[in-house]
Amino acid sequence: MRLDVVSIFPEYLAPLELSLIGKARVDGLLDLRVHDLRDFTTDRHRTVDDTPYGGGAGMVMKPEPWAQALEPLLSGPERPVLIVPSPAGEVFSQSIAEELAAEQQLVFACGRYEGIDERVIEWAAQHFRVRPMSLGDYVLNGGEVAVLAMVEAVARLLPGVIGNPDSLVEESHQDGLLEYPVYTKPSAWRGQEIPEVLLSGNHAKIARFRRDQQLRRTAQRRPDLLSRLDPEKLNRADLQVLRESGYRIIDGHLLSTD
Ligand code: SAM
Questions:
Q1: 131 lines ligand 1 (CB under 6 A)
Q2: Which of 3, 145, 162, 173 could be cross-linked to 32 through a Cys-Cys bond (beta carbons 3.0 to 4.6 Å apart)?
């Protein structure tokens, strides 16, 4: 997969040289290039921002350096996806990460200050498939941290990036539920024993225990996820656990009775 990140702080993306993403780059699974937006300015001060029309606080990123930086990234046969990190975007999720992992090329445009002149988005929509994308309902200083998170979430789904692909199967959000709690050696630690069933060797019982934990944890921490579950995919044992957590199926929907 080809990834291009445009930023005024290329150094901010240095963590993408580390760990599994760094290794994927060395192994040729990821062709990740970071571009300095200031290299596409024409003035002596390498200016990328100016005051906002209409007044108001802060500065706005000028359009022309963006067009200059993005145009050379259009060499492939397909219109690439251009992800524009923004607190005003669609909220990034595991299912979006899965969608993006199927693309050949992703381009990321890291905003700073009050954001990028809106005309860049209009212009880019003629050449890219533009997706304004938010990491969550809070405001960061720039798009770089959001890009670090999105690149990691997407790249770890690519074949060969994670050593054991089974690790991707039972993770949080993979099936609309949070992951079950995990434990390692020693089995007793500071007065706490691990759940006994995990030592039983009974795979069916362990699977049932883990599924119960997933349902309970999701009910407790993320009831919004439960309300999106398809009740058709729940078996009798699942429904029993959910009843104990205060949920019932009413008119085909899983609803809290609290
Ligand atoms: N004035 C903008 C607004 O209120 O929507 C916020 C600008 S923010 C200070 C500067 C840049 O940080 C944005 O252009 C965007 O690239 C990035 N950013 C901030 N919060 C973000 C979030 N929740 N998700 C993704 N990117 C974010």
A1: no
A2: 3
Confidence class of residue 182 from pLDDT cuts 50, 70 and 90? very high
Residue 109, Cβ density class (10 Å: 0-12 exposed, 13-18 middle, ≥19 buried): buried
Atom 1 in ligand 1: residue holding the nearest Cα: 114
> Is residue 256 in contact with ligand 1, taking CB distance under 6 Å?
no
Say if residues 135 and 92 touch (Cβ distance below 8 Å): yes
- CB of 112 within 6 A of ligand 1: the answer is yes
Instruction: Give the global pTM.
Output: 0.94
Give me ligand 1 centre to Cα 18, in Å. Answer: 25
Q: Are 180 and 214 in contact (CB under 8 A)?
A: yes
CA of 173 to the centre of ligand 1 (A): 25
Ligand 1 in reach of 142 Cβ (< 6 A): yes
pLDDT in tens, 13-70: 999 999 999 999 999 999 999 999 999 999 999 999 999 999 999 999 999 999 999 9
Find the range with the poorest average confidence among 111-125, 138-152, 156-170: 156-170
Round to whole Å and give the CA distance between 106 and 2. 6
Counting ligand 1 atoms within 8 A of each CB, the residue from 139, 147, 151 with the most, and so the one to mutate, is 139
Can you tell me which atom of ligand 1 is nearest the CA of 133?
Answer: 25
Q: What is the pLDDT of residue 116?
A: 98
User: Residue type at 122?
Assistant: E
Averaged confidence pLDDT in the chain: 96
- Rounded distance between C-alpha atoms, residue 47 and residue 194, angstroms: 58
